[in-house]
Specification:
By secondary structure, the chain is α/β, with parallel strands linked by helices. The protein is built from 12 helices and 12 strands. It folds into 2 domains: about 130 residues, Alpha-Beta Complex (Aspartate Aminotransferase, domain 1), CATH 3.90.1150; about 240 residues, Aspartate Aminotransferase, domain 2 (3-Layer(aba) Sandwich), CATH 3.40.640. The protein is about 40% helix and about 15% strand. Helix 1 runs antiparallel to helix 8, helix 3 runs parallel beside helix 8 and helix 8 crosses helix 12. The longest helix is centred in the C-terminal third of the chain and has 39 residues. The two termini are about 25 Å apart. It binds pyridoxal-5'-phosphate. The site of pyridoxal-5'-phosphate has 14 residues, from helix 4. Pyridoxal-5'-phosphate (PLP) binds next to helix 4.
């Protein structure tokens, strides 16, 4: 049944590339020094850490001194929200504005902050998953300390108007955070031109390992630390640095930055061909998210009359890895909050499928998905009690 293996779930995570692996391996075996130590072994780790910081900074057009390494994207998101609202730059203001389609790393953190007495406004998005800058403008009050809007959505791929929101927040004297976990290394990000104050990113979305992330903190902003201890990362994030993981993130950032124009064009063309093919071959199926302003390689659909979970399992039997809703919520039976927020009905939202292409995918992978997915959908619909032609 399985003629090919196609990994099409790059928004969930990505394989570590050979170049990145070769670069990180010495930091487990021979270059194992603690970066805080004074002898040469430790100083060599320190130099590698600073080199990775420069690569991440360069990819964001930030200064290296504005980049801090963390344990994951979730931690960076927590640092931004909790650290800013509890920190001195909030100046006692207790209002946070975010959107209804954020990742749970933001939404659950916002909910925890509400329990602490902070006020949170969840700005809705349109049918394409785009947030309106005017709505954010209207939501800002003198008590607003922070606006957090994701760069690109992990479920439907839509890119948000980050530069416009950044300009608005700067003019209104409000701090602006963006969760760029899906976007970093995949689309151009310029924290200066886009007036971004805080930005979260994660290594495992760009062919580097899981369990390492970073946060950009614009110079002049102080976050109340979440992890206190040995004072690493200039007291912003204590804990002995994961040098191998950080080296990998730096190398992955360099590679993705250098390959970005070509890779964006390649993945966008593949995304278009796959989306058009699916819509042509399968009746009662719709693409979700913005048709053009989207993360390269990100394809998302809803299918009437069948469950996303069944499609994913059947695709797996065909050697294809895909997702329904968000990878983090696949254990839940609730339809995805993102699909509900963009106005899909509960029934149709249950039939969602996300196919996210990455660096290792080829045109042959697209051909294979286009051959197998229509058959899978047809087979499942024939068994479905709710499917009506
Ligand atoms: N934010 C977004 C938009 C994501 O897609 C993810 C992971 O899927 C995260 C945050 C969490 O990142 P991490 O897995 O590194 O904790």
């Amino acid at each position: 049944m399985q003629d090919r293996f196609v990994y099409a779930d790059n928004a969930a995570t990505t394989p570590v590339s050979a170049e990145v692996l070769n670069k990180l391996l010495p930091f487990y075996m021979s270059e194992y020094g603690n970066a805080s130590t004074l002898y040469r072994l430790g100083q060599s780790s320190h130099a590698a850490l600073e080199n990775a910081r420069r690569e991440v900074a360069k990819t964001l057009n930030a200064a290296p001194s504005e980049v801090f390494f963390t344990g994951c994207g979730t931690e960076s998101d927590n640092m931004a929200l909790r650290g800013f609202l509890h920190g001195p730059n909030a100046k006692g203001r207790r209002h946070l504005i975010t959107t209804t389609i954020e990742h749970h790393a933001i939404l659950h953190t916002a909910a925890a902050l509400e329990k602490e007495g902070f006020r949170v406004t969840y700005v809705p998005v349109d049918h394409f998953g785009k947030v309106s800058v005017e709505e954010i403008d209207k939501a800002i009050t003198p008590d607003t300390a922070l606006v957090s809007v994701m760069f690109g959505n992990n479920e439907v791929g839509t890119l948000e108007p980050i530069a416009e929101i950044g300009a608005l927040c700067r003019s209104r004297g409000v701090c602006f955070h963006t969760d760029a976990v899906q976007a970093f290394g995949h689309v151009p990000i310029d924290v200066k031109a886009m007036n971004i104050d805080l930005l979260s990113l994660s290594a495992h979305k760009l062919n580097a390992p899981k369990g390492v992330g970073a946060i950009y903190i614009r110079s002049g902003i102080t976050l109340e630390p979440i992890l206190t201890g040995g004072g690493q990362e200039k007291n912003r994030r204590s804990g002995t640095e994961n040098i191998a993981g950080i080296v990998a993130l730096g190398e992955a950032a360099r590679i993705h930055r250098e390959n970005m124009p070509a890779e964006m064009a390649r993945l966008t063309a593949m995304q278009k061909r796959l989306t058009e093919g699916v819509l042509r071959e399968i009746p009662q199926c719709w693409a979700t998210g913005h048709p053009t302003d989207r993360l390269p390689g990100s394809c998302s659909f809803v299918f009437a009359g069948i469950e996303g979970e069944s499609i994913v399992l059947d695709l797996d039997n065909n050697g294809i890895c895909a997702a329904t809703g968000s990878a983090c919520s696949t254990a839940s039976l609730d339809p995805s909050h993102v699909l509900l927020a963009i106005g899909q009905s509960r029934e149709v939202a249950h039939g969602s499928l996300r196919l996210t292409l990455g660096t290792q995918n080829t045109e042959e992978d697209v051909d294979y998905i286009l051959e197998r997915l229509p058959r899978v959908v047809d087979r499942l619909r024939k068994m479905s009690p709710v499917w009506k032609e």
